[in-house]
């Protein structure tokens, strides 16, 4: 399941973040690449322990906690602190799969990477190339979203960022561990949630069908969730 989280950040919020990002110190992105990905990665990142990275990461986490589509799709248990990267002309990240476990820097906390996410901080017309390509059983999906939108997808999927041929692509990215390990079960819960959300304004909370769907949703949550 690949989900677009629309308008996670407003345009004004993105503009403010970009002011800070344009003034930040960037380093070689290979510093945080896994063994398999290191040879595929050519981009730049802001050091995770820097003050600006932590402030922006906290801002993004607050926005995620308040976005109903993200909560419904991810059912997050642990979120690896958001990181920031950019791709300038000629930079790319070849085909790879994300590490299954990430350790939060400076802590003993381990995060199983059930889901990966990219938050776009550049508008599509600011750069050429730089598409996020995600492979699944139905082929390759090319993703290039508006600034402030996020894409959420299973971390088990092979993916890459195609070479930037012009301009600069800036984004944030993160991984998370869901309360529901199974992608199929998470998709079922998301579909149920979206049906409840669309039917409730039409029929009301007390309509028998809405109540039945809501009851089923919470029964499955109790059966499938780990906390």
Automatic annotation (TrEMBL):
Binding-site residues for 2-oxoglutarate, renumbered to this chain: 169
Textual note on the cofactor: Binds 1 Fe(2+) ion per subunit.
An annotated GO BP: intracellular iron ion homeostasis
Domain Fe2OG dioxygenase: 78-178
Sequence positions that bind Fe cation: 96, 98, 159
InterPro entries linked: Oxoglu/Fe-dep_dioxygenase_dom, PKHD_C, PKHD_hydroxylase, Pro_4_hyd_alph, Pro_4_hyd_alph_FE2OG_OXY
Protein's name in the database: Fe2+-dependent dioxygenase
Species of origin: Neptunomonas concharum
